[in-house]
């Protein structure tokens, strides 16, 4: 009896399962009828438009004094006074030290006395020579006496000239006892104090004066970059930013911008063989003395102007397996095209593209992960910060 009940339950289960299968099979055609084919993928694009870009190069450098002069004594003696304040400004010719002038004053007075003596002797010999000139005409004196008188006159004149030179030398040495500043500028610390003995033309400087307004900034640039710049200017790809010396801007150590612009004064004529770089020197006004020699700064040099620069958002540029920059654009047939680019430099969040894109191209910047070359897409304007830079010159930094 129990066995028959089990068979009946198994039969009922099989009938129930078979009914579920039949019902599910009846619903399949309806589900299949509800499917729709997928359309083109929607992507955000930016239309490429040329624009005017001022190209610049940012280089690291150091400040250097416009003029530097070491103050050294030209006569020896004891320092009596120091006549300046360390760290202050001095003018050209301003006395800085006083050396004991006693011996030089005495030498000056002695030279003046020797000059007076020579001039007195000259007056006597001149009178004698004049009288002998009259006497020799009437044969009152011999020709030899006349010649001796003329020779004595010339010797007297030479003695006076030598005495005058000695007086001038003594006067100069006396003046040198006041050690003056050779240039105007800011003076550093003094290496001697009153009472110190100094000698003429000693190796150790008494102090150093530096002219800081204006001030130099020396930077280096690779010779390859200099050649590239000259090539672009010669071909017309770049136009000079202005006539005359190129303008230069300065960024200080703390990242702040120096308010006064400078000018590129010259570039060196020799390439450093060890580094392959060439030195550029700019000059900046420094009226407040904010720039001091030896400061680390960054200069922004104006290279020129690219009238037809192609700027694209960096997010629209990727790299292939070889490291070459690539971009996806929407072709005329509405399908994705892969372009290989050449980028010259970064401009904030954009790339400056030299090859691979042209005006009117639709660069894909949004939805790149959903597409591949050859896939049909639906381009829509990008809604984020991918839009082109507003009209007006932009600045590119290397």
Q: Which helices and strands appear, and what pairs or packs with what?
A:
Layout: H1 2-33, E1 41-47, E2 51-71, E3 77-82, E4 89-90, E5 95-99, H2 102-137, H3 143-176, E6 178-180, E7 185-187, E8 197-198, E9 207-222, H4 223-235, E10 247-251, E11 262-267, E12 277-284, E13 296-313, E14 317-319, E15 325-330, E16 336-340, E17 342-347, E18 350-355, E19 362-366, E20 377-381, E21 394-396
Helix pairs in contact: 2-3
Classify the helix fraction into a percent range: 25-40%
Query: CATH topology of the largest domain, anyone?
Result: conserved putative lor/sdh protein from methanococcus maripaludis s2 fold
What top-tier CATH class of the largest domain fits best?
Answer: Mainly Beta
Q: Give the CA-CA distance, first to last residue.
A: 97 Å
Query: Mean of residue pLDDT?
Result: 83
User: How many independent structural domains?
Assistant: 4
* Total DSSP E strands: 21
Shape summary: elongated
Instruction: Assign the CATH architecture of the largest domain.
Output: Beta Barrel
The profile of the biggest β sheet is: 6 strands, mixed
Keywords:
single chain; 398 residues; alpha+beta; conserved putative lor/sdh protein from methanococcus maripaludis s2 fold; Elongation Factor Tu (Ef-tu), domain 3; OB fold (Dihydrolipoamide Acetyltransferase, E2P); 4 domains; six-stranded mixed β-sheet; six-stranded antiparallel β-barrel; 4 helices; 29% helix; 35% strand; elongated; disordered N terminus; disordered C terminus
Q: How would you describe this protein?
A:
This protein has 398 residues and is an alpha+beta fold. Strands 1, 14, 15, 16, 19 and 20 form a 6-stranded mixed β-sheet that branches. Strands 2-9-12-11-10-13 form a 6-stranded antiparallel barrel. It has a 4-stranded antiparallel β-sheet with strand order 6-5-3-8. It is elongated, with a radius of gyration of 46 Å. The N terminus and C terminus are likely disordered. It contains 4 helices and 21 strands. A hairpin with a 2-residue loop joins β17 and β18. The protein has 4 domains: 102 residues, Beta Barrel (conserved putative lor/sdh protein from methanococcus maripaludis s2 fold), CATH 2.40.420.20; 102 residues, Elongation Factor Tu (Ef-tu), domain 3 (Beta Barrel), CATH 2.40.30.170; 53 residues, OB fold (Dihydrolipoamide Acetyltransferase, E2P), CATH 2.40.50; 75 residues, Helix Hairpins, CATH 1.10.287.470.
């Amino acid at each position: 009896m129990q066995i028959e009940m089990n068979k009946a339950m198994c039969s009922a289960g099989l009938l129930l399962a078979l009914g579920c299968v039949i019902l599910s099979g009846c619903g399949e055609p309806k589900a299949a009828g509800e499917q729709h084919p997928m359309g083109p993928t929607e992507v955000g694009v930016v239309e490429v438009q040329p624009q005017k870009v001022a190209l610049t190069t940012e280089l690291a450098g150091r400040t250097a004094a416009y003029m530097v002069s070491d103050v050294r004594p030209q006569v020896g003696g004891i320092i009596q006074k120091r006549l300046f304040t360390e760290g202050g400004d001095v003018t050209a010719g301003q006395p800085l030290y006083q050396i004991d002038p006693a011996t030089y004053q005495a030498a000056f007075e002695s030279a003046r006395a020797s000059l007076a003596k020579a001039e007195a002797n000259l007056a006597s010999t001149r009178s004698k020579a004049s009288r002998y000139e009259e006497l020799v005409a009437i044969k009152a004196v011999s020709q030899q006496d006349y010649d001796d008188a003329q020779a004595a006159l010339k010797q007297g004149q030479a003695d006076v000239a030598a005495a005058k030179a000695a007086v001038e030398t003594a006067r100069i040495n006396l003046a040198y006892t006041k050690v003056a500043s050779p240039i105007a500028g800011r003076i550093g610390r003094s290496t001697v104090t009153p009472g110190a003995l100094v000698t003429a033309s000693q190796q150790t400087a008494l102090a150093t004066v530096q002219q800081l307004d204006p001030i130099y900034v020396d930077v280096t640039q690779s010779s390859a970059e200099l050649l590239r710049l000259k090539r672009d200017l010669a071909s017309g790809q770049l136009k000079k930013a202005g006539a005359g010396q190129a303008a230069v801007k300065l960024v200080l150590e703390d990242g702040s911008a120096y308010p006064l612009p400078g000018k590129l004064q010259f570039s060196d004529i020799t390439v450093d063989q060890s580094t392959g770089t060439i030195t550029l020197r700019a000059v900046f006004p420094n009226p407040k003395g904010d720039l001091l020699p030896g400061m680390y700064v960054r200069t922004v040099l104006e290279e020129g102007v690219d009238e037809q620069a192609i700027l694209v958002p960096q997010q629209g540029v990727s790299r292939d397996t070889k490291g070459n920059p690539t971009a996806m654009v929407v072709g005329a047939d509405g399908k994705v095209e892969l372009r290989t680019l050449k980028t010259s430099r970064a401009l904030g969040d954009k790339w400056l593209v030299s090859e691979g894109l042209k005006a009117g191209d639709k660069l894909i910047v949004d939805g790149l992960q959903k597409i591949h070359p050859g896939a049909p897409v639906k381009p829509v304007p990008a809604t984020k910060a991918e839009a082109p830079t507003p009209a007006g010159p932009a600045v590119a930094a290397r």
